[in-house]
Amino acid sequence: MARVLPLLIVAAATLLLTSIKSSTALKMASPGCRETCGNLTIPYPFGIGPGCYYKQGFDVSCEDNRTFMPNSSSRIQVYNISLLGGQIQVSTLIASKCNYTNGESTDGWVSVFTTPFFTLSSKANKLTAVGCNTVAFLGGYNKRRAQTGCVSLCLDKESVDFSGQCSGMGCCQTAIAPNLGSLNITFDKSFNNYVVNEFNPCSYAFVAEQDWFRFEASYLQDKKLTDKYKDGVPSVFDWVAGNQPCDEAVKNISSYACISRNSQCFNSPNVTGYLCSCSDGFEGNPYLADGCQDIDECQHPLQYPCYGICSNTVGGYSCSCAAGTRSKDPKTSVCSPDTASERAKLTKLLIGFLLPLISRRRYG
User: Per CATH, the architecture of 246-294 is what?
Assistant: First the structure.
């Protein structure tokens, strides 16, 4: 059966490039909106419910402590999100086709359509196909039509590569075109499983993170792969707050997304468009008014070292040595006793000791 998945991409966000961690001090969701779903934080510009997200496509639902885009009917679950990196990890389904020894056959494909702010990441994903006598294609659009594919051939069990690698004998992988706003996974019908259906009745194809999948020969057996990954496989999509570069986006204040004071715009390193971040010395959500708050660097000595007396400042911190000590830079080296100061103290001590003796000898 064919499966068409509307991908209204939505994300939660993180201050790091990997997983997001909730902070009791920093509010990440729009005021009055739900901030978490299960263990996942959902910060603005993404949100749950009307009025809680930036634009259509950034809306998500929370069902049984799982986050979906836009809801569970899409079968696209949000696993992980990156605010600074402008990426979201989601589940996408596996395309399959089967030719059984009893003559029955199935022929399936998977299609995904994104909103204007999301594209399939060419850097993070690969097209993977599993099967023998299998040719799979990934087609899509990035202002023009693009297509790629890979071939996996193995005429008997002995010719299957058991190393776990996708070498083209049981499994193949290939890079994908950049900036795909839609994708369609299909098979070449002139290659089918009739000739190998005694040990490999089905072929599979999917887009997944390039380092995630490790091939197992057992996946060639009927439905072993789809039974294991019923909810789909992890894929990465790039997202942006707007499709213009920063110098153009900032001219339109009504739609400019970096609204927090102490925030800044930067062009996405992955796709055409821009993202927002808090300025140096600030943390939080740059997409919210007053979302970027000052970091008290003195509370985080491992990240912001100070070998003297630490003082927090707006957007930074200062570090000084105590009286009588000195350092070339107390942020990088320890404060040591000031030699000149110690010599002065010793001189005063000696003078204080010798003066009474001299006076006693002179007037004694």
Answer: Ribbon (2.10)
On average, the pLDDT of the chain sits at 86
Which sequence spans correspond to the domains of the chain?
Answer: 36-71, 91-239, 246-294, 297-339
CA dist 246 and 239 (Å) reads 15
pLDDT of 201 above 60: yes
Query: Which residue in this structure is represented by tokens 């064919």?
Result: 2
How many C-beta atoms surround the C-beta of residue 344 within 10 A?
A: 12
DSSP 240-294: -SBSS-HHHHTT-TTT-S--STTEEEEE-SSSSSEEEEEPTTEEE-TTSTT-EEE
User: In percent, how much of the chain has pLDDT > 70?
Assistant: 86
Whether 6 has a pLDDT exceeding 60, the answer reads no
Query: Whole-prediction pTM value?
Result: 0.80
Pick from 87, 41, 84, 88: nearest CA to 69: 88
